Amino acid sequence: MGTRAASGPAVSALSAVLAGLDARLPGLERLYADLHRHPELSFAETRTAAALAARLGADGYEVHTGIGGTGVLGVLRTGPGPTVLLRADIDALPVEEKTGLPYASTARGVDAEGREVPVMHACGHDMHATWLSGAAALLAEHRSRWSGTLLVVFQPGEESGGGARAMIDDGLFDVAGPPDVVLGQHVCPGPAGWVLTRAGVLMAATDALRVTLHGRGGHGSRPETTVDPVVLAASVVLRLQTIVSREVAAGDSAVVTVGSLHAGTTHNVIPDHATLDVNIRTFEPAVRERVLAAVDRIVRGEARAAGAPAEPEITELATYGVTRNDEAATTALTAAFDAYFPAGRVAEAPLVTGSEDFGEFGCAAGVPSVFWLVGGLPEREVLDAIAGGRFESDVPSNHSPLFAPVLHPTLRTGVETLVVAALHRLGSPGVG
Amino acid sequence: MGTRAASGPAVSALSAVLAGLDARLPGLERLYADLHRHPELSFAETRTAAALAARLGADGYEVHTGIGGTGVLGVLRTGPGPTVLLRADIDALPVEEKTGLPYASTARGVDAEGREVPVMHACGHDMHATWLSGAAALLAEHRSRWSGTLLVVFQPGEESGGGARAMIDDGLFDVAGPPDVVLGQHVCPGPAGWVLTRAGVLMAATDALRVTLHGRGGHGSRPETTVDPVVLAASVVLRLQTIVSREVAAGDSAVVTVGSLHAGTTHNVIPDHATLDVNIRTFEPAVRERVLAAVDRIVRGEARAAGAPAEPEITELATYGVTRNDEAATTALTAAFDAYFPAGRVAEAPLVTGSEDFGEFGCAAGVPSVFWLVGGLPEREVLDAIAGGRFESDVPSNHSPLFAPVLHPTLRTGVETLVVAALHRLGSPGVG
Amino acid sequence: MGTRAASGPAVSALSAVLAGLDARLPGLERLYADLHRHPELSFAETRTAAALAARLGADGYEVHTGIGGTGVLGVLRTGPGPTVLLRADIDALPVEEKTGLPYASTARGVDAEGREVPVMHACGHDMHATWLSGAAALLAEHRSRWSGTLLVVFQPGEESGGGARAMIDDGLFDVAGPPDVVLGQHVCPGPAGWVLTRAGVLMAATDALRVTLHGRGGHGSRPETTVDPVVLAASVVLRLQTIVSREVAAGDSAVVTVGSLHAGTTHNVIPDHATLDVNIRTFEPAVRERVLAAVDRIVRGEARAAGAPAEPEITELATYGVTRNDEAATTALTAAFDAYFPAGRVAEAPLVTGSEDFGEFGCAAGVPSVFWLVGGLPEREVLDAIAGGRFESDVPSNHSPLFAPVLHPTLRTGVETLVVAALHRLGSPGVG
Amino acid sequence: MGTRAASGPAVSALSAVLAGLDARLPGLERLYADLHRHPELSFAETRTAAALAARLGADGYEVHTGIGGTGVLGVLRTGPGPTVLLRADIDALPVEEKTGLPYASTARGVDAEGREVPVMHACGHDMHATWLSGAAALLAEHRSRWSGTLLVVFQPGEESGGGARAMIDDGLFDVAGPPDVVLGQHVCPGPAGWVLTRAGVLMAATDALRVTLHGRGGHGSRPETTVDPVVLAASVVLRLQTIVSREVAAGDSAVVTVGSLHAGTTHNVIPDHATLDVNIRTFEPAVRERVLAAVDRIVRGEARAAGAPAEPEITELATYGVTRNDEAATTALTAAFDAYFPAGRVAEAPLVTGSEDFGEFGCAAGVPSVFWLVGGLPEREVLDAIAGGRFESDVPSNHSPLFAPVLHPTLRTGVETLVVAALHRLGSPGVG
């Protein structure tokens, strides 16, 4: 296989490059705890970006900051050869941390509506950033062992959507040219030390909608003079459940979540509107279309049932396509993972309902991309859960206020995967 | 009738005292617009209290501020005779004004949870304060025409509950002794120029509850790892509707309103709890008890149905008893109103679902109290609505973001009622 | 008072007429048990009508049967004087009796849809028929003591609606001319031995609607090929609760009940429609109009939200106006009751949410009518409940499968009321 | 492959056996129309069984009737060799036919609750019986071309569940010994002329539950004296939707259908209970367990929220395991289908949410079984639907009142599949 032959020499560099990982783990652990303690919301990742940029600079990268707002690009050219883009996302979520960790966050931020909210790295982007910082350092330290161009991308605004697009639109690919391949990874609620991926569709498409339901406000004691938007919102939430339960075939997959519902300011005033933020996951265009049409139909039908004085408004907050891994590139990368990791640690991923804007880099550049998952939960508990018939354990997973991936071997594995993946695509010195 | 005879001389002072009202109306209108433009939330009425206290001082009252937080007491003694307490409430609501008035509020405040919220005089307390300020000035100007002690009370924290109690507990009645009668009024969605009251129960009891529903948070794409509190909250809201529709007899009255419902921070995170603020109005203790028990039963039953990981919490935000007008005092006052106002302008009030902590002053002092309503909507529109079979017109009413009582004759009528009511109880010079 | 003077002589006949009641009670008790054991649905009261007609004939009445289907009219003329119509309804309900009484019903009938259903006198019409049969016998036995014409009407089809109208349309008033007054009564969940009435509106208007919701049927395992009418029906039922809870003012009264909901035939087939029978009670035209409009709006809005393939159908099953007692006639009758019954046993009735087509007789004849209630529950338990703050006791009431009025003194009281009421209107011999 | 070699000679008989199919199609069409016009509910298939038994007898089978109630077994022994069981189910459903076909059903039956209900072959069992009757005749006519024992089984009570078990328990396998393989088929909403199957799990497990919700009955106008089971049932139905929408992972599959909901008899009586028949489909034991637990939790939690006077009752109406095709037997049969049918007509089936008790025959006998699907919808419409991104077309599918498979080529294909499958397993004369 051509790819394999070409990367052969680079792969031989693996043991040398990764030999220094053990010594760097304590430093990475400190970085991780620092990022975790100081989470920042989408497009507000100034402290995070500065810290990561500083490390890239110290490692010898040419550093570009402020791309797409708060994005960071590190470039390292070691000679002729392919250009490989490694991407990590760096933003956190408006979740109030309840892990009790010594480095738990107490941070607050301001959300898109100007509300002050708690902030937490509840999706592991702190881990992603730490992994990529660690891999970037090792690859820089051993730059003599590979030839080509490495693009290290710390992307803002993945949770909100728009971060990948913002960096691309802001000229990301103008700095050092477009990449030949785009690589990225996510910590997942699989067993720590495991790597999971699949060719083709890996992750769901997301549509995030804001639904504003209009009522007529008034005194809490005189509902007959009002149209109560709280009751309307409750009806909409319950009715939205029927989309998945009644309108999506058992053999298809969809998720419809109302993640946020807000109405009113106090007990004795009936407010004049309610706001729902809805998140939709699908894998098939026909299912997506049906679900979106059903949301629209339900929201409008319920507003009519309520006698709402104005039509509801439905606006798009974010939209991501499915994350689709290039078939050939994924096959080759899986072989590289298989060759490096112990037997049984590289597995086929199930379809993941999570979504990503990672795919936009490959799409925009017109090159293959591969995304994979790195387990972050205690291996024993996850395997017990699987033996009990469930992929899921009871360990809190991404977006939970209790989400706390185990540091070991998670930290190590995610650096290894990036180095394996990068070297597998980069050329050998004097060859590439 | 004794009361009538006794008050005869004082009543004869009426025309003299009220003769100056016309000249004062422009100033009162400016005061009203100023208060309206600068609303302040419960117990944060510092600017309002200062303005009202300053006017009392200028009118010759002995002024006491900071009673019960931001409460104001003005005392005027003119000789022997009864002590009459006139009360107005002065706080505003977390409502975003949408009246488009030239003096509309754009104010913001901080609510009990520390959230920044819009603030509006959506319940007419700016009108109440203006009325009382106007009446206090007239009664002070003509102090030679009556004998007794006038207590002018500007009460904070009526909307939140607790304001009357706070002033009493803070020694209100120690300053000039307890009153012999307590009088107060509220602007209502009746026709402007009308005065409505009734002996016995006039206004409902209120119980305000905060319900916290616990779920288990997680990723918006993986609801199966969570217990979704948004869905639970929606079920609770719909099920609470059945209390009034199924558990309260048609001949009884109750209102159960969820005025505020908040859950979550963003679309792709399932939050771990939801918060509902519930407002309950009843007139009968047995109905109140049944409704409260039903709320508790529904909230707990729904949490079980949801598999909630923790019991819901139900805490009391505020509680008011019914507002009960003293029979004899109300009969006498109605006669005084009848004697002053044109025929047809004084009517029996219906039972009002609104609530008040006004009653606490009379209860604490062990003296009669009378509360009445002054219409604030355009007379023609209200009468047309009544002719069409409804007490309610379509004009926005109290607590609506569109609430805007007509200034004329509303401003005048509310000053007249206070002066009539006060003089009717105060003694004549050399007699009282 | 004219009425009183005129009825004086007739009233003096009271003790003579009622002297025979004691001896007749065992026979009336047997009649009641027999009717109770053999209930018949609306317009199928053939056995009941035959038994009552036979007794009227034996008592000397001119008997007309088959009026309006299964209605019975007995006529007794004793001389010049007023014509008094006494009416009892005689039909039963599709309820499965669970009283465990020795004379409990095990009867079955066929409802309007051709379904076989259990049948029970769950509303006491067996008591009404027994009362009127007893009073008719006593008044016939003592026909020399009054002068005038007595019309004894056993009306079918009150529960279904349409029975009064059917008798009138079938020439009821052609037989012996129209009455001068129409009198009727109902057993109620008040204390046995008590009589309750009120001038003006006594009972609610009823609108009964059938709502047919159309879905699209299919296999229970493939809801995505269907529009599930069971889910749609559930949404409609919950949303209908909001009419009373949100759209009817606390000071107004309305009841919206879905008494019957049917959809589907088996677990693994999603049916293509659901049927709801809805019963609405109101006292005010404006409230009635708003409630009916809200039902229509909700049903159609929910069907849209469901994506129903066809508009819902809403048809009227029955409609009754309010039962309104003539002011003067009620005042006079109340005086007669007061004069006869021990102090405290005649009380003002509350507004009753039950409905009646009794009022149609008086309307059609253009004469006054009076309707009253006779308590049927154990006095002690009801009074204890009232003392506890509730008009309602826990004793099962009308339409419950456990409804079982106490026989004593209920049987006696209801005969007494009819005799008092009739004699109070009839003339004296040689006078009338 | 051993199976293939062994069946080689028998397969060579195929063209001879199927040569007579064309001539028999008109007769099969008449049989189908007759069965369709006269559907019978589960375990009441007396007319159907008699007709099918008569044809078997005429074809020379040894016929056994009344096995497991209304089951029929035909036995044909032609010499040494394997015993092959071919099974068709013959019962119909309580669905009111709305196809408008000339041979549409107007039949009525009595369901398990004694209700009279419409009956329709809405699941194609009339087609299954016709297919098997046709294949049995052809195989009997050409009995000299195969060696072994053929068991032709017409099974009652598949829709209700229990039919396969009843036949087995009633000694099905005692008549002619157990089979070596069990074969069966179902008409499906795929394209007519197509055959679909898959090794391993093909069809879902079903659990059918009856949920009885207890309220307290009473007068429709006085809900406050009742606990309304209609409102409770509505809440349960909506809440059950959340099992699939919130508790089943997007990568898992489950269906929860309330196929039937009944409460009450008339509009003005609040009934004392409601009955829901719930159908649950799952493929994985862990998912099944979670769904069943959730149903229990929701039903009980909602009853508590309602203040129900008694615990709900949940009873099992039927339970089926997944339908699992033997791997080796399915591979071999698929090869036989591939060899016979035109290219593209034999496809891999998706996971089917339908359920079957077919699997019980193979389980009880301890032998392999294979089940497959035969398309019954117009090929062009189905393929257009698939091209539009959906497996489903808009053509009404199984259990719909509009279900009407196209007769051609559906009738032919289902006879061919049975003959191919039987001969592929049976021996050659003088060899088997």
Using only CA atoms, what is the Rg of chain A? 23 Å
Any low-confidence stretches of chain A, pLDDT <50, length ≥5?
1-10, 389-393
Dominant shape of chain A: elongated
CATH class of the largest domain in chain A: Alpha Beta
Task: Let me know the largest β-sheet of chain A.
Answer: 8 strands, mixed
Helix content of chain A: 25-40%
Average pLDDT of chain A works out at 92
Cofactor (chains A, B, C, D): Mn(2+)
GO biological process, one term (chains A, B, C, D): diaminopimelate biosynthetic process
Binding site for Mn(2+) (chains A, B, C, D): 123, 125, 159, 186
GO molecular function, one term (chains A, B, C, D): N-acetyldiaminopimelate deacetylase activity
Secondary-structure topology with pairs:
4 copies of one chain form a homotetramer.
Chain A (H helix, E strand, L loop, with lengths): L1 H11 L1 H6 L1 H17 L8 H13 L3 E6 L3 E7 L5 E7 L18 E3 L5 E3 L6 H17 L7 E7 L7 H7 L2 H5 L4 E11 L3 E3 L2 E4 L1 E10 L3 E2 L9 H19 L6 E10 L5 E2 L2 E10 L2 H22 L6 E8 L2 E3 L1 H14 L5 E3 L10 H7 L3 E9 L1 H9 L22 H16 L7
Parallel strand pairs in A: 3-6, 3-7, 7-18, 8-17
Antiparallel strand pairs in A: 1-2, 2-6, 4-5, 8-18, 9-16, 10-14, 10-15, 11-13, 12-14
Helix pairs in contact in A: 1-13, 3-5, 3-13, 5-13, 8-9, 10-13
Describe the structure.
Chains A, B, C, D: GO terms for molecular function: metal ion binding; N-acetyldiaminopimelate deacetylase activity. Chains A, B, C, D: Its cofactor is Mn(2+). Chains A, B, C, D: It holds the Pfam family M20_dimer. The structure is a homotetramer of 432-residue chains. With 432 residues, chain A is of the alpha+beta class. The first copy, chain A, folds into two domains: 9-203 and 322-425, Zn peptidases (Aminopeptidase); 205-320, Alpha-Beta Plaits (2-Layer Sandwich), CATH 3.30.70.360. Chain A is 38% helix and 25% strand. Chain A contains 13 helices and 18 strands. In chain A, strands 1-2-6-3-7-18-8-17 form an eight-stranded mixed beta sheet, with helices on both faces. Chain A has a four-stranded antiparallel beta sheet with strand order 12-14-10-15, with helices on one face. In chain A, helix 8 packs antiparallel against helix 9 (285-306). Chain A is elongated and about 80 Å long. Chains in contact: A-B, A-C, A-D, B-C, B-D, C-D. At the A-C interface, helix 8 and helix 9 of A face helix 8 and helix 9 of C. Strand 12 (254-263) of chain C pairs antiparallel with strand 12 of chain D.
